[in-house]
């Protein structure tokens, strides 16, 4: 005899009732399972395969080279999470599932792939050791996340795509909120392929740009700048910002650079920028600033990530950030949240 449907439908979504004090912990534990499903959705590019309409598990299994039984279980779980919806015997994308489609602005596929990539995922298990010893096992082995990516091309591709996707909102907000009138030359220190700088240059045609990053980035950066039609206004300089920074720009941009380093290395970078600046140059850093109180904030989550994948990398509050700049011979002139991102703009000039 079949049980009444209510015996199942009334059960809680967690192992315990929502009012139970253990519910928050169970939600985190189940989040690991759920993220594994989401990562598989991204890796198999199910959003791309479903972009033109619903498909059956059999069709999807053939398309992505998967076993139909296991894929059906995955699709069922993703539908329960709200990323897919059942349409008869087929499955279709929901609005939130469509955010994993690669070819849309702000696609979340690259964020998921970067976070769930095996090396990146395993790095997070090193937080315990980092807390105990002050040393990240991942960073000790690879030097940093960038050292790992250099030797893992697929992970490097996904990370580059994630950085470009993530940087678009920040770059657009920067062009809206920061006054660039009077600025003619900008050096993007550790600028990767040049996404932030190229967005700025699109908005301000009078700006000439320089991207400084390691030689390993050169080919990708030069192609990116060529695709944007900026090779006549923007050059790529292969180099290490610990050694030197191109001299004489009106503005030096450091987007998510300082947080990669502990105090000594962060000050080294900032001093190199200070040495390259003219008396009237400005430095503009984009980084997360931690709030003064303990409340839910992206920065606290990111700080755990930094502990796992960098040696010394960390998020800082405004006072800590200001102290770094002071030590490097720079004076803060402006701090402003970069809405709608979790970043802040920190502007500084050379101490006279």
UniProtKB/TrEMBL annotation:
<dbReference type="InterPro" id="IPR016461">
    <property type="entry name" value="COMT-like"/>
</dbReference>
<feature type="domain" description="O-methyltransferase C-terminal">
    <location>
        <begin position="128"/>
        <end position="330"/>
    </location>
</feature>
<dbReference type="Pfam" id="PF25213">
    <property type="entry name" value="HVO_A0261_N"/>
</dbReference>
<dbReference type="GO" id="GO:0008171">
    <property type="term" value="F:O-methyltransferase activity"/>
</dbReference>
<dbReference type="InterPro" id="IPR057527">
    <property type="entry name" value="HVO_A0261-like_N"/>
</dbReference>
<dbReference type="GO" id="GO:0046983">
    <property type="term" value="F:protein dimerization activity"/>
</dbReference>
<dbReference type="InterPro" id="IPR036390">
    <property type="entry name" value="WH_DNA-bd_sf"/>
</dbReference>
<feature type="domain" description="HVO-A0261-like N-terminal">
    <location>
        <begin position="42"/>
        <end position="102"/>
    </location>
</feature>
<protein>
    <submittedName>
        <fullName>Hydroxyneurosporene methyltransferase</fullName>
    </submittedName>
</protein>
<dbReference type="InterPro" id="IPR029063">
    <property type="entry name" value="SAM-dependent_MTases_sf"/>
</dbReference>
<dbReference type="Pfam" id="PF00891">
    <property type="entry name" value="Methyltransf_2"/>
</dbReference>
<keyword id="KW-0949">S-adenosyl-L-methionine</keyword>
<dbReference type="InterPro" id="IPR036388">
    <property type="entry name" value="WH-like_DNA-bd_sf"/>
</dbReference>
<feature type="active site" description="Proton acceptor">
    <location>
        <position position="259"/>
    </location>
</feature>
<keyword id="KW-0489">Methyltransferase</keyword>
<keyword id="KW-0808">Transferase</keyword>
<dbReference type="GO" id="GO:0032259">
    <property type="term" value="P:methylation"/>
</dbReference>
<dbReference type="InterPro" id="IPR001077">
    <property type="entry name" value="COMT_C"/>
</dbReference>
């Amino acid at each position: 005899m079949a049980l009444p449907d209510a015996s199942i439908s009334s059960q809680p979504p967690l192992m315990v009732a929502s009012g139970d004090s253990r519910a928050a912990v169970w939600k985190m534990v189940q989040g690991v399972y759920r993220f594994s499903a989401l990562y598989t959705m991204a890796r198999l590019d199910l959003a791309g395969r479903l972009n033109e309409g619903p498909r059956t598990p059999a069709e999807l299994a053939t398309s992505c080279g998967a076993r139909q039984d296991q894929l059906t279980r995955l699709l069922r779980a993703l539908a329960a999470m709200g990323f897919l919806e059942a349409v008869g015997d087929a499955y279709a994308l929901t609005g939130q599932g469509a955010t994993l489609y690669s070819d849309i602005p702000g696609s979340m596929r690259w964020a998921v792939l970067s976070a769930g990539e095996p090396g990146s995922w395993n790095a997070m298990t090193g937080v315990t050791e980092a807390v105990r010893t002050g040393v990240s096992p991942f960073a000790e082995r690879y030097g940093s996340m960038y050292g790992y990516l250099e030797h893992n091309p697929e992970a490097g591709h996904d990370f580059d795509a994630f950085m470009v996707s993530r940087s678009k909102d920040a770059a657009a907000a920067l062009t809206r909120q920061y006054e660039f009138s009077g600025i003619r030359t900008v050096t993007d220190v550790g600028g990767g392929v040049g996404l932030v700088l190229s967005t700025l240059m699109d908005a301000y045609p009078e700006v000439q740009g320089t991207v400084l990053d390691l030689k390993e980035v050169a080919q990708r950066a030069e192609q990116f700048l060529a695709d944007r039609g900026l090779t006549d206004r923007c050059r790529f300089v292969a180099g290490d910002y610990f050694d030197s920074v191109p001299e004489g720009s009106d503005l030096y941009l450091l987007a998510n650079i300082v947080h990669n380093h502990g105090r000594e290395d962060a000050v080294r970078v900032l001093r190199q920028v200070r040495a390259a600046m003219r008396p009237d140059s400005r430095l503009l850093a984009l980084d997360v600033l931690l709030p003064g109180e303990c409340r839910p904030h992206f920065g606290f989550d990111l700080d755990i990530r930094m502990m796992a994948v960098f040696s010394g990398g960390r998020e800082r509050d405004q006072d800590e950030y200001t102290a770094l700049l002071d030590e490097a011979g720079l004076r803060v002139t402006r701090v402003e949240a970069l809405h709608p991102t979790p970043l802040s703009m920190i502007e500084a000039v050379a101490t006279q």
